[in-house]
Design a protein that fits this description.
single chain; alpha+beta; 3 strands; 18% strand
């Protein structure tokens, strides 16, 4: 959790000053941690819950985009085959569009909001590409 707590302001600053594309390039350039035990790895569902908790209590705050980017970064550091996804959908009546970002590992998740969004950006592990 310390990594998430320390990474949240760094990631928010990168998004604010460098933008999404540069932040993604930076995240993907980080090497996986060496010697990380598989038993210590956190799965996607638990990772989402933990990251949400960090952002809820952290002074930087943030919604799905910074939360998902931080989760993606930490899972990649752990060597997990995950994807970072951004999707859109129509929001109610009219021309409004809603966007959402999430991390997935290719396994369907109960109650996941992601299937209701059409993916417009997918970055990450090729083994789970649609």
């Amino acid at each position: 959790m310390l990594q998430a707590w320390l990474g949240a302001p760094l990631l928010r600053a990168s998004l604010a000053f460098a933008g999404l594309e540069a932040t993604l390039r930076w995240v993907e350039s980080l090497p996986a941690a060496r010697g990380r035990e598989a038993a210590r790895r956190v799965g996607v569902e638990e990772g989402e819950r933990l990251i949400r908790g960090v952002f809820r209590r952290h002074f930087v705050g943030g919604e799905c985009l910074p939360q998902s980017l931080l989760q993606y970064l930490l899972h990649r550091r752990d060597g997990l085959p995950v994807r970072f996804v951004v999707g859109v959908r129509r929001a109610g009546d009219g021309d409004a569009i809603a966007a959402h970002a999430w991390v997935e590992d290719g396994a369907p998740r109960a109650g996941a909001v992601a299937p209701t969004f059409a993916s417009i950006l997918v970055v990450g592990d090729e083994r789970h590409a649609a």
